């Protein structure tokens, strides 16, 4: 990974962008009409940074070793926390690793035709492939939703 850019958008949205060596001027984003409140390039950070995401939550960025946390001021606990080396890259993919709490319910990442909705302790490969001409195709939107009030899209 060459660099990670963290954009804090309005309405409590945190956008993570892994920058690679290729030119990425033609970005496509489904997050439209959101104002960027603050932007961090992790490679430029030398110390731990804390930034208010909204009235109740603080984003904590530790650049070395790279770790992200969203901390609830109200409940005085971490809503979300990454593992060390949470962004990993292989020749064909980029992935994320993070911890979840014991009482957390994890839903999403597409249809499981065996009706298993609980994604705890499951490694999921999330990709979107859909043939618009094949109406029988099971197209999914890879969205992850946590009972702790955060999600990934």
UniProtKB/TrEMBL annotation:
Pfam families named among the record's database cross-references: Gal_mutarotas_2
Start and end residues of each Glycoside hydrolase family 31 N-terminal domain: 4-152
A single GO molecular function term of this UniProt record: catalytic activity
Gene3D superfamilies reported in the protein's UniProt record: glycosyl hydrolase (family 31) (2.60.40.1760)
GO annotation, biological process: carbohydrate metabolic process
InterPro entries attached to this UniProt entry: Gal_mutarotase_sf_dom, Glyco_hydro_31_N_dom
Protein name: Glycoside hydrolase family 31 N-terminal domain-containing protein
Higher taxonomy: Bacteria, Bacillati, Bacillota, Clostridia, Halanaerobiales
